Structures are given as C-alpha cells and as structure tokens.
Amino acid sequence: MSAPAFDPKNMIYRNLGPSGLRVPVFSYGGWLTVGGTQKGDIVKELMKTCYDNGINMFDNAETYASGQSEIEMGRVIKELGWDRRDIIVTTKVFFGTNRSEKQNTRGLSRKHIIEGCQASLERLQLDYVDIIFAHRPDVTTPIEETVRAFNYLIDQGKAFYWGTSEWSAMQIQQAIEVAKRLNMVGPVCEQPHYSMLHRERFEQEYEPLWRYENYGSTIWSPLDSGMLTGKYNNGIPEDSRFATNKAFFENTVKELNSPEGKAKIEKVKSLTKIAEELGTTMTSLALAWTIVNTNVSTCILGATKPEQIVENLKALEVYPKLTPEVVARIEKILDNKPALPASYNRRDESGKLI
Amino acid sequence: MSAPAFDPKNMIYRNLGPSGLRVPVFSYGGWLTVGGTQKGDIVKELMKTCYDNGINMFDNAETYASGQSEIEMGRVIKELGWDRRDIIVTTKVFFGTNRSEKQNTRGLSRKHIIEGCQASLERLQLDYVDIIFAHRPDVTTPIEETVRAFNYLIDQGKAFYWGTSEWSAMQIQQAIEVAKRLNMVGPVCEQPHYSMLHRERFEQEYEPLWRYENYGSTIWSPLDSGMLTGKYNNGIPEDSRFATNKAFFENTVKELNSPEGKAKIEKVKSLTKIAEELGTTMTSLALAWTIVNTNVSTCILGATKPEQIVENLKALEVYPKLTPEVVARIEKILDNKPALPASYNRRDESGKLI
Amino acid sequence: MSAPAFDPKNMIYRNLGPSGLRVPVFSYGGWLTVGGTQKGDIVKELMKTCYDNGINMFDNAETYASGQSEIEMGRVIKELGWDRRDIIVTTKVFFGTNRSEKQNTRGLSRKHIIEGCQASLERLQLDYVDIIFAHRPDVTTPIEETVRAFNYLIDQGKAFYWGTSEWSAMQIQQAIEVAKRLNMVGPVCEQPHYSMLHRERFEQEYEPLWRYENYGSTIWSPLDSGMLTGKYNNGIPEDSRFATNKAFFENTVKELNSPEGKAKIEKVKSLTKIAEELGTTMTSLALAWTIVNTNVSTCILGATKPEQIVENLKALEVYPKLTPEVVARIEKILDNKPALPASYNRRDESGKLI
Amino acid sequence: MSAPAFDPKNMIYRNLGPSGLRVPVFSYGGWLTVGGTQKGDIVKELMKTCYDNGINMFDNAETYASGQSEIEMGRVIKELGWDRRDIIVTTKVFFGTNRSEKQNTRGLSRKHIIEGCQASLERLQLDYVDIIFAHRPDVTTPIEETVRAFNYLIDQGKAFYWGTSEWSAMQIQQAIEVAKRLNMVGPVCEQPHYSMLHRERFEQEYEPLWRYENYGSTIWSPLDSGMLTGKYNNGIPEDSRFATNKAFFENTVKELNSPEGKAKIEKVKSLTKIAEELGTTMTSLALAWTIVNTNVSTCILGATKPEQIVENLKALEVYPKLTPEVVARIEKILDNKPALPASYNRRDESGKLI
Fold it and tell me: The NADP-dependent oxidoreductase domain covers which part of the protein (chains A, B, C, D) (predicted)?
C-alpha cells in the first residue's frame, strides 16, 4: 500500500450538531459494501486507507449485510490496533440483522434498542459506539420510550450520543422536546439522504432543525448511488452497483430510463463541464458541493476500492474553489433548489414585514 | 323569520380534540362575509337562524373585515341576549386588524397575543372567548413565548382554550411538547382548510396529530369557496364569491380555467349524480362528507343568507346515508386520497409486520 | 412642526434578542433630559418627532429626574393618543426615585421590584410597560428572588418582558439559567453603555451572551455624552451636557483633559474625515456604526431638540454605506477592538485546532 | 530518609468548598516535575516525605509530562501501599496526553471526558480519583454536555467530585446552575493561579463564587514559579525552573527583566525583610499568606526535592503569626489588592447603603 495521498492534519472537522464531538467532513460507511461484496483483506485495506488519509469515522448498522458489516469492521479495528479514543464508530438499530418478520427483534421498543445495541457491540467487539442511531422512525412505539431507551444506553456507557435516520422533522423535533422535558439527552444528528439530486427533505423539511436546534447530520448517498460520478451518462456499466444489486436498485434503474432520469443525466453532463473547468472530476465536485452546506456535519463515502477513497478526498481540494459564483452556476444547472418553508411573518433584508 | 327547520336537539356534538368542550359538527364563521358584505340586521338574522337550528358556535378573527366581523357578531350576541354559557365564541390573533405594516400589532409575540386578544374582546363586548387561535405560525417568535402568552390569557380568564391555524404539524407538535415541559396548557385544535378537493395536509401531514395527540379541528372552506356546490359547473355566476372578491380569488379563478380546474369540475359533476341518488344536493353531500372523517371536530359554514344555513344543515340528514360503500364510490371519483405517512414498522390488520 | 423627514416605514426593526418583540434600531430615552432640563411642551414635540419619523420605542427609569421623566412621558403618551399596541414603553427599577438612603425603596428585592414597578406605572399612567429592567445588579439579593419577582410582574400583566442593565455577563447568565430551572421567563436583553469609544464589556465580556443566548441589547450613550459628535474637538462648549451637568460629568470632563482624553479627540477628528467622505456628519457615522453590530437590538438616542432627532436618524442613510472596507478603516483609527474571550479549544477557519 | 519534621496531626484541613471532602491546606502537585525532570526513586521519596509530614493530597493531570506524571505517581502509591481511603488523588482532562492535534482526544466532549478519565485511571492504576478537573473551558462544547459527562463519571464510581481549572467565573456559575437544573452534581472547586503577585482573578472575578457558592479552590503556582522564594532577587540562577524550562517560561523571563518585573523584585525584597522579622523565609511567608485567604482550600506545592517540602511546610508555623496587622503591612508593600466587583447596593459595616 502506498503512502497516504492526504495529510490527515488537513482534514476538515465540524462539531456534530449541538454536541462537542468533532467529526471529519468525510467519513466511511459500510452500507452495501462492507461484509457483503467486500470481505476480509480488502476491508482492512479500505479502512486503513481511510484512516491514513484522515478519515477516522466509520458508519455501520445492525442490518448492513445482515450484521456482517459490523463483524468485518470490528475485526479490522482490532487488527489495526487504533487508539479507540481517536476513532469514531457508529451503528444503527431498527431493522434487526436480517429484516426478519420477528416482532421484537426490530423497531424502537426499549427491548430492541437495548438488545440490538448489545448484539451490535458484540459483533463490533467494542465496549461502546460513539453514536447509535434509530435507523428509521417507529410509529408504533411512543417516542418517550425510545428517548428513554437511548438514554439508558448512554447512561450505561454503551454509547456517547444518539441520532436519528430518515425520521421526519416532526418526529425529530418531538424527540428533542421530550428529552428536554425529561431532562434527558436528545438526539444530536440525523442521517438522511442528501445529494445534488436529492435535496428537498434536507433543505426544506429539516430547515427548522438546522436553524433552531443546530441539529447535526451524517449524510448518505452523496453521489446518488453513482449517478453523480457521471458513470451512467452513457448507460449502466456492467460492474456498477446498479448491475450488481439488481433487486435492490430495480426502481432506481427504472427511473434512470424515465424522462426524469434522462433529464438528470443531462444535468450531470452539464455539471461535468464545470468540474473540468475547475480541474477536477464530477465525483469530487458532487462531494465537495455537499459540504458547502454547513448543515452537513459529515458526508459518508461508500467506496469499494482504496483508490476510490483517495479519489473522493480530492473533494477537499475542490471545496475552496466553490465560491458563491461557482455555486450559483451549479444551482442554475441543477434547477432544483427547494423553497424554504412558508412563513407568514418574515421580514426582508431591510427588516420590513413581507 | 320562519320556525327553525331543525330541532337543535338533533345537532351532533363532538369533543374538541383532547378538551372537554363539546362542539356542534357545524359552526358558523364570519370570514369574508360578516362585517364586510353582510352588516347590520342580516347578521342578526344569520346568527339567529344558526342558533335556532342548533349551531351555537361562532368563529371569528381580529383580521376578518378589519375587526368589523367581531364588532357585528359581538353586537348581535348582546342584542339576542343569549346565555353566554350556551354559546361558543372563538377568535384569532396574528394579522392585526388591518394587516398593516406595523411590526408589533401582528405576529405571535407576547405583546401582540395579549394586546390583540384584549382588543378583540373589546370589539366583541365579551369578557372572554372560548377558544383563541394563533391565526398563522410566526417563525420569528420562539414557540415557548407563544405558548406562555396563550397560557397567560387562559390564566387571566380571557380564554378557555387555545388553538392553531395553518400551522405545520411539526409546529403544532412542538407547541404541545413545550406546553407539557412547562406544565402548561397545550393547543387543542387546528383550523385548517379541508374539503373533498383539498385533503393532503389534513389527512397526511396532520395524521400523527389525530392519531397520537387526539388533536381537534375546526375546518374552513368545506365547499372550496363554492366549487363543491356545483355552481361553477357551468362557469362563474355573477353574484358568486369569486365574482365579488376578484382580487382575493384571482388565483382560484385562474385555476378554475386550467386543465386541473376542469378536471375538478368533472369530478363535481360525477359527485352530483351520487347526491341526486341520495336525494340531496351536491352542497349537502360535500358538507356531510367532511364530518364522516371524525378527525373533523366542527365544519365551519360561511353562508351569506339564512336559507343557505338551513340548506347546509341538510347535510345532517345525508350524513347517516354515507355508508362505507357510498364513501368508497366517492373516493373512486375523487381519486385523491393522500397516502399515509411512510412507516417502516407498521403491522397489517392481522398484526403481521408489513 | 414640519412634516417628518423620514418615512416610518423605512425604520429598520430587529427582534429584541430571543423574544418576538420587534424593536426599531433607534429608540428614544429620557435619561438626563426628559423631566429634568426638558419639561412640558418640548417633551411632546420631541416624542411626536420621534414617532412621526419611525421611532416608536421610549426608554425610561424610575430614577430619571427622580420620577419626573416617567411623569412627562406618560402625560405625552396620553395627550398624543397613540395606539398603545403600536408603541414600546420601557422602564427600570433599582435606584428608587431619588437615590435615597432608604433600605427598601431601592434594590432588587421582591418588595422593591413589585412596589417600584407599581409606582412607575402610576407615574406613566399605563397599565403595563413592554419591558421592565433591573437597572443595576443587586448583590445582596439572591438572583432567584429577582427572577421570581420579575416573573410575578409578567404574570400580573404589568410587563411583557424583562431585562438587565449594567449587569455582569456572569450575573446575566445566572439569571437565564435560574429562570430555565424554575420554568420561568428569563431576561431578554441588557442595557449597556456602548459606543465607538466604549466597547470592551459589550464586545468582550458579553460575547458569550450574544453567541450562545441570542441575548438582546438596548444600548445607551452611543455618542459618549456628545464626545462622538465632535463638539468637544475644540474644548467644552458652554451649552453642552458636560457644562450643564457639572457634578454628574465631573470625572468625564477631567478625563477629557487627560492624555487619554486628548487621544480620543484625535480619533474623533480622524473619523470626522471619513464622515465627510461619506457625505455625512460625525454624529451620524457614530450612530450608524453601533447598529452595524447586529448584537445591538436598539440604540437609544437622547436628543434634547426635535431637530437633533431628525439629524440623528440620518444614521439610517449612512448605515448601508458602512461596507466592510469602511468599517475596517474605522477600526484602524479606533484601534480599540477588544480581543475575544480566551478559548483553549478553538479551531481556525479550516477547522484545525489552534 | 529522616523522621518527618512535622506531625501529620498538625496539618490544617479545610472542607473543599461546598463538599464534605476535607483537604489539607498544602497538597502536592506533579506539574512540571513528576514524570518529567523527576522520575523513579526520587518521586517515591518526594511523595513519602509529603505523606509523612501530613500532605496526603496529590494533584495530577493527563497532560503532565504527557501522562508520565500519572504513571509515576500511580506506581508510587501502589508501592507505598497507602490506605486508598486516607489519600486524595486528583487528575484533570482536557489537553490529552500530548497536546496533540487530534480532534477528539482533547476537549470537554462527552467522548474525551469519559475516555480521558479512563486512560488516566489506567495510568494511575486506580479504580477512581477523588476529584476530576476540567483542565480548561471548552467553548465548542455545550456546558450541559460537560456537566452530564462528569456526572456520568461520578455515577460510575470513577470520581467522587469534579472541578474546573482556569474557567471564567461566568462559565463556573453556568455549570453550577445547569447542574442544579438537571438535579446533577455541580463542580466543587476551581484550580486557579494564585499568589501574592497574581491576585486579580482569584480575589475579584471569582469573589461571587466564594461568597455565594462557597466554591472551593486548589491553587497553583503560589510562589510564582519561584519568584516569591526570592531566588530571582539577584537574577536567574542556573538551576532554576526558568533556566531549565526555557521555552515554557520564555515570556516570564522576559517579564522579569521589564520595568514591571523589576518592580516586583523590589516588592519581594521588602517582603523578605518582614519574613526575617517573623523569623522565617520569604518562601514560607508567601505560602502562609495564601492560606490566610480562607477561600483557598488547598495550596499546591511543586517541590523537586524532599527537603523543599519540609521547608515549605514551615509556612504552617508562620501562618498563626500573620495577624491582621502583619497582613496590612504586607498589603501595603504589595499594593495590588484588587477592587471588589462593583455593587450599587452594598451596605457599609454599619448597614448603611453606600
């Protein structure tokens, strides 16, 4: 393995929302790769490349590869002998390990949150994770029970912080308020889908959370499953994620061939030209664009090859080039900026009621 | 004035959400009529007709007809000498009386809520209203300040309950939680737009509020400004609300002539046939349909003539005829039932995870 | 009296800290003038000029002119018949009316806060003030007692908000936290001295309050008792405040003749040149400079003549001309920018620990 | 090793602030010596001398000698086989062990407080410390998170008390109030710099903490890095701390040669005469002077040789000789008594308002 391309000291860090935890703006996630298509030595290579280049945050979930993702990552962390204090490890409970039909091995009941976390820690061979996420909302469990269960884990030293994933803004706000009422620790971040082509929930629905709660975020699919690398500009390559996970991506592929899908590809083609002007790739541009939004605490990368990680981190070099002018040009091409939530009492810049 | 067509004893009552207040399923509102196009004796006639036929709930707002709506209604209540304990009077603060540009005579600051309510009570010549609404959300005022100010009014005896109007589900949920944290009284109902043709927010966004908070509702525009009476089936009549409030309804009229507007009219035509089958009018069918949804606490009527009120109340006769089968036929014509909020952990009727 | 020079609609408004109250960036205060040197008709002229030009906020204190300031302002408010909802009236308790030696007619005990406020309201002929301030900290009264007493006034409808004046950041933070613990209303703003020549406490000590509590401010002496008008550039004129309030300003005058005082005058002379470049006066520049700092909610003017108010409001025209470049030139002349509070864990702009 | 010079029974004990812990007025700290210049047998000799002469409190920090200070002290405690119940061991988290650039191995996040404490306990070979300090404030972490994390350590039995070091009075007050609100344990003491020549923060800024919170203190550098021993009266000796830690003390040495530095030396010379009159050394006088201030709970000694400890403890003999008259003479020479925080409502000794 060659020397790291990036000096870890140049990584940019941000506070994870209202917490004191400092997270790197790019982190690495096991979704769809680790423990599934990627096992054994390659995982060690991937994670070592991450760490050596400044990515010290690793995202997981009980359901990723039916628990195998945690097993692989846990093994590598042990083998590489990293200082536990220097890395950030996260996982998520909700789906159980195999999305089984069993009623109590999933969801956000006190029972599954505690039992699920314990099983994850065993697979990871760790005493605690840094952040534990509720992987989805569970409308059949009162939010108070869920808030209490995550606080139990924190009080037991099994986790330092907790977060949400794919919750509605309303559910998150409620969890924050319930925690306040109970003098408990509220969730500190959401893990949502966010990318150039998927913006509405992040920029519109969650906007009050960024503005009033200083909520954090760990975003996934910043490249829209590869769409924003430009590799689908001329159809679906045989070795792509869409081709290798046919069942999972069925709808995505269908959408790709729809008029909307084709319009997206046209946008990617136009953005590619801007990338070239900036002397970079479409991929780096798309990744750098996500962290221009400072409501993004960290952007999760899902590379399958070590060299992709190094490639992705070139986004750190593009980032300073994304001046307001360049961002405005990108907005014009994307033409999908969500409107802010309606307000009946806002003022314009001069302070006048509008 | 002729004898009442309906025995008030046959009025259907529902609890207003989580409160002990019993509201009639049909109430009367001053919006766009009382104090504006309708003044003096006709208002007394309208309100007397309401009361004599079982409608004892009157809805108002500081902004309706720039305060004149409250003045008219207050005068009539005094003149008719009704037992204050037998009627329900509501009003709303937010816009001020004249939607003026003044910074502190509008909004949901403590200052405007208290001062605005006081001014409304003076116009109404009442010591208190039964319910006071926040007529819109105010994103420039912290929700805690607003919750505290409405509780001040309740503690001072100026109002018995408070509610929201056109707030997002998230804002309502937050107000409920903040009130719980402060051991204060939360809002008990929302005043939203709801009708056969305007369902999304009520049935989808607010669904968790109905389900988990037992939130109440006082719906407005159940006939979509007349659209659902069928009177626009052949164009806009000269004496209709759209014709007499041109500026206000400009966009509505524009929409009426759009392809979507025309599709709506087709639906109304099909529904009219069902109404005829049931031996009633389109208007009565549309009104009755709203109260089939038991999340509707009361449906606000906005009639300009006493005979319209009597006509509207025929909905009480149609209501029992709206069996599940008939409702299903209506749904098929409407073809606009909003999907429920996504849930990853729901069970089907047999209890199986779906 | 001539027509107002400024359209009130052009006044700039800001939220008063974490409250929903909207305050004009310039307000008018009675300190040292109203009820003392200025009585009767001139007060009415002054306040009418304020209101007609967009200043609808009037600041007072029980101690100003031994209560005469409140009496004068209250009389004028009544005589001019303004809509109470459209104006903001504030007062302060602490010193009593005559800075007497009596032990319980001053301070921040529950007794004096309640009794003092009642006496102020009687002098003002008002049912309530919008904001009531603790005019100084009282180290002999527990802060909890003071927080409770101000909440009593708010619960009784005697005031909508409460604030502090010349408290230490520590005392303010404590009051905020005590209010949180008791589920009470915390103070929303501080009334401190702030000007080009008096910056340390505002910009340094209070900095955490602006940053973390979104605390508001109503600043006094923005012209440093006239120093920043340039009128002392060539000595003390006979009709100036320093000359007419000799005892009060004894130390100030002494300082004026010290080396430090002379250095200040040199700065004012240099700034006057910038004012001339911008086509304005030293006074307007100094006033506009205070509101460039958005931690200033409102800047209290203390004019003794109606024409001064109009002159002062020209600051609204200078304000947009204070670009970052101009502000930087001013900073260079002032050469008194306070350092931020020391931090042992700050990061530089790239996120690196420093 | 000779017999102890002092009977441990004569040691003076004070409660550590508002806690029930009794601390000796003199304690021993590892800063700049233990694990750095002093290792192995000498550490055992030093600590045994402390203990045998009545000093049973040992102060440490994760950052002292990059963790070596804890390792040395932990080893000695184990080797000497002291009763754990009879000694007080403290440590501090914040800087990490090597003041490294790593983002999460320092600061006051939940992560670092818990992980840092665990690592310290491992180095000390202890199950718990008596007091754990936040070695500095961390403005990037909400104080609530820090309060919760220290309470976690206390709940887990890893520490009995927690304190602050070099925090502003405002930050300490806030931590106390947040802990009260959460029904948690607040900090009990501050570890500040305090000596005859460094008084402002201790006597002025912290004064409300002593007065109203009965806050405790464990002061460091009571001899101002040797300045108050008189050894710099004639320049910097070659074996002094300033000479051996050149980089660290660069600024101190520079100051020593400045006019202010020279003025300080003159004061020390005058104080030395008083010491001689009292039949003691400058060192003993300076140490005894600190404990005359009963807001000092314990004064941390940093001796590098066993005999220095015995010398230092002679301060216990001087202490009773520091009558009000002698203290007044010392004040006159020091001429640096900080003014008390301004108060507008204080009473003089007769109870009159002043």
Answer: 28-334
